[in-house]
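Friendly challenge for the regulars: who can give me the structure tokens for this chain first? No prize, just bragging rights.
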Amino acid sequence: MGHRLSRIYTRTGDKGTTGLGDGSRTDKNSLRVEAFGSVDELNSVIGMLATHELPEAVTCELVEIQNDLFDIGGELCIPGHSVVTDKQVERLEHMLDTLNEDLQPLKEFILPGGTPAAAVCHLARTVCRRAERRVVGLAREESISEPGLRYLNRLSDLLFVMARSLNRAAGVDDVLWQRGKNT
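First reply, four minutes later:
Bragging rights claimed.
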């Protein structure tokens, strides 16, 4: 492993730039920093979700996801770097298929909610979608790892199904959207 920070503040970012993993500097509001910052935020929300009482398989998967998100952040922080593979995307797809097997098909849109864990899962899903949008924006300007982008797309799907699965496991119905309820 590379060197570790022994001092947290460096003062090098005081003028609005930050260092990338390859030693170069960029503006803190650049597309690249927005992208890896959103992935970091997603990782934090996944960490919040993992603090809930969850089925062991879900908890284990969340730890794997957090490690994968750190890898994606690393890819984004080091231009040209690639770590995430299609194997990680396939792992998400397998978990998605496994969780979805026991769910009833949706006939209506659902609202974020149900159990506290499912609500946090929905929050993670929306942060994941934003992170994906930021990475797509960066990909329009610079070359990035395609598996990382596919991973984020699949992860948001998994988080949606995971929220439904957590509600089902707790015996709580999904919150269904009701068109024009308050009109």
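The first strand starts at residue 17 and ends at 19. The helical segments are 31-50, 56-77, 86-100, 116-139, 146-169. Your move, everyone else.
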